Amino acid sequence: MGLAYTSIRVKDLKKSLEFYKFLGLRVIGRRSFVPGEKVVMMISKDTKQRLNLMWYSKSCMWYKPWKNDGVELDHLMFEVKDAKKTYNQLLKKGYPKATDLWEWKKGAMGLVKDPNGIWVGVRSVNRNGRK
């Protein structure tokens, strides 16, 4: 038993792919199980965690109007080498800030909004106590 994958609904599949590729995920497959659906399966090379991007046309049986607040999922968290640098790069790319960057003795963490409004965090933790 264990978590197999996480799926999120996306408004713009192309922009979402660009965002999650920047965070180190790679595409491992594409499928459609019902008419009007597109599923892109991605994986993290380091942690082997899977994320499925789910896009539905208005004609798809699974389509629901977008709420646009992105908090139903709460957030996803990515472990990165340098959270401050990655956080600032994402802001420069135009992704909206969800939270400020927090820094502490052993690390840093901040959250931005992906192209769908979902909060996505980046964090780095130095287990040796040095940043």
What does this structure look like?
- The strands form two sheets. The protein has a four-stranded mixed β-sheet, with helices on one face. Strands 5-8-7-6 form a four-stranded mixed β-sheet.
- The relative contact order is 0.19.
- The protein has helices spanning 13-22, 83-92; strands spanning 6-9, 25-31, 37-44, 50-56, 75-79, 102-104, 107-113, 119-125.
- With 131 residues, the chain is α/β, with parallel strands linked by helices.
- It has one domain: 2,3-Dihydroxybiphenyl 1,2-Dioxygenase, domain 1 (Roll).
Short description:
The protein has 131 residues and is of the alpha/beta class. It is built from two helices and eight strands, in the order E-H-E-E-E-E-H-E-E-E.
What coarse outline follows from CA principal-axis ratios? globular
What is the count of helical runs? 2
Please outline the major beta sheet. 4 strands, mixed
Structural class: alpha/beta
